[in-house]
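Request from the bench team (R.T.):
"We need a structural guess for the complex before ordering more coenzyme A. Sequence and SMILES attached. Just send the tokens back."

Command: build protein-coenzyme A structure.
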Amino acid sequence: MLPSVSTEDDSTDATLIVPVSVRDLLPRDLPACTWSGSATHLRHVERELTRAEAGEVDYLAVCTPADLPVAIGGIDYQASAQAGTLWQLAVFPALRSRGLGTLLVRAAEQRIRNRGLRRAELAVEENNPRARDLYERLGYAAYGREPDAWDEEGPDGAIRRHETMCVLMRRDL
Ligand SMILES: CC(C)(COP(=O)(O)OP(=O)(O)OC[C@H]1O[C@@H](n2cnc3c(N)ncnc32)[C@H](O)[C@@H]1OP(=O)(O)O)[C@@H](O)C(=O)NCCC(=O)NCCS
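Reply to R.T.: structure attached below.
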């Protein structure tokens, strides 16, 4: 299916339908992923792609027909025994609430099954209720809480420590 625009007669409003597909995120994609976070974040993602080459993680990208990533996210197979751990899920801001996050989670679950594992896990910040609602809708249940912390680069380029509390969630596949 090719992208198509449908318009009503005499209208300047239109609906654009664009097919998307899921593949592995590659180092060459990173310059097109600046929407997903700071330069520091993208350096972390780049490191994770090295782990992907070693089979320790999968890192997925949902792409448009022009092969541009509009949603990305990882699955870590070393964070937890017998489970794949979803993390760093992000959807291009202007395309949120259109099902891309759902597609990414379902594709990640398929990768986990393909490894012979039957459980998906993730951690979501307590102050991110929208993401938590999405995971609940997709069948994830909370089973604990855990603090997390990481360094974040502000708009001024300064690095600040971000400390937060996460809800741990899991789903049997
Ligand atoms: C959290 C995140 C990954 C979810 O992705 P998303 O693409 O917005 O998720 P979905 O579209 O699949 O589902 C979310 C919402 O869209 C709605 N939706 C899903 N498909 C839809 C469709 N075809 N048409 C209209 N609405 C739809 C869902 O009902 C849901 O409702 P809500 O907007 O009230 O929450 C995304 O919002 C994001 O990148 N957030 C910032 C980073 C982040 O918080 N990451 C999670 C870290 S744990």
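Two things stood out. The CA atoms of residues 152 and 170 lie 26 Å apart. The first strand starts at residue 4 and ends at 7.
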